[in-house]
Amino acid sequence: MRYVVLGSSAAGVNGVRELRKLDKEAEIILVSKDRNIYSRCILHHYLAGERDMERICFAEKDFERLYNITWMKGRACVGLKPAEKKVVLDGEEELSYDKLLIATGSHTFIPPVKNLKEAENVVGFRNIEDMEVLKEVARTSKHIIVMGAGLVGLDCASGFLELGVPVTLVEMAGWLLSKQLDERAAKTYQEAFAERGIAQYYGVGVAEAVLDEQNRITEVILTDGKKLPCDYVVVTAGVRSNVEFLEGSGIETSRFGLIYDETGKTSDENIYGAGDLSGTSPIWPVAVKEGIIAASNMAGVPRKMTDFFASKSTMNFLGIPSMSLGDVNRADEEAKMEIQDTKESYKKIVHKNGKIIGAILQGDLAYGGILQQLIARKIDITKVKKPVFDIDYSDFFHMKDNFEFYYDE
Prior knowledge:
The protein is of the alpha/beta class.
């Protein structure tokens, strides 16, 4: 059996691990554009100089030997021939497979802003190459515009702050981290970033980049007409799945990315997908879990992606920890909100028909474990005769004679 895995990030690496765990004798070939394995979630630490390449690597030092794989580094997949069970690599090299895992992730999308694609001083925030560019930008630029105030945008801003370089955030949504936080929780971060010198513009976008004769941006014009000086733009606001090489292959995709089911299987029974390239849940823990599940099914051990609460984010910017679970901004008349707001912390739980559908913890995350159990086990919190923030494990777990907890539905 020959397994080919495309992509060496969270989904691909964990897919390789699972394949070897379940199939000791198979041939496993890993193909990746990257020559190193590293976590994209902590690239800002590399930018800030807090970690080197070794310390952002999430794989074992002897990864290739330990899992007995062939790693084709610095190679791109440019085509796919499902009928022949072959992938086409750059240089027109063809590589055959019995089972294929596509975990090629995503890339920065330059939005259709006037003059932005033509500009020389624009970069994304997705890989090591971007970080090398940005290290130089930090030394030479005074007016850095970061497009987007999502998780990646705040990682970028945090990395620059560690270098002593404040930036300007421009975000179309009404507040930062609009997918993870509500306006109240976002305000805590906005005030903290402002105190560190980060200028912020919300509810507006970049309408135009003004270029000089060398095609370098000198200022940006926002959608409300305001002009900001600029000598570099970092795009963090949009990504696109790396599925271009699937064009003409017949493998089913959507406008978001590759389509695969809860087992990871695509429209071809020998091809599986995992991670960012679905375009639906660009979160590290989801990519890890999808890679494991897809690999398990490839190796003949049935598993499904049904036991995971996908929309979870844990973050810590400027020393302020936060956790976001599910839909925290539910505009639904049937949904109810419970809020506990103090000087030290902010907690919010959104529930509907007794089931928690979203939650925010900020400042104090101690309740996070209980929350995740309530969500995972679909506990009807209306049947627990306590205020929602006072629920503990004993309210839905029982204790055996030996003092071990168990849950009985």
